[in-house]
Write the structure tokens for this entry.
Amino acid sequence: MSLIEVAHLGRLAANAGPSTLIELGRERGGSTLVLATAMARAATLHSFDPQSKLPQLGDRFDSKLGEAFARYGLADRVHLSREDSQTVEPLAGHYAIVLVDGDPSLEGTRSDFERFCLQLQPGGHALFHDAAPGDPRQLTLKPLMAEIERDGRFARRPDVGTFIEFQRLPGD
């Protein structure tokens, strides 16, 4: 993640207030750490990643993250799950932020959108990492991004680095 993406993600988390944040795909945990340290004291973060990309290192990454969260007093508000976002039961309620950075396929990203982003609260943010023009994944995700842009429940926000961002509109 670039510095501008880190800053943007941190700002969104800090402004989300007491809410639920969702991260789909964490690999080494950089974005997890940004979200967790920036979010409000009454917020919670649920991060899902089966760690299938780097299975031999996933336990180590998650262990180090857990140690950091314990050290910073965040362990009770950050939940690291090795479950796959495609099969896990989404949490009840509405979310302030959904960061989609897991399955890079069109089908996988569409599933994450339908399963999690449709549960955004009004004003909530859906961020798709590595989806903006210029990123190789952009061509794969372009049809889905166009569909969401036409969806009357979401407004496209300006791209930040490789993030395409949508904000849930009031109503519905």
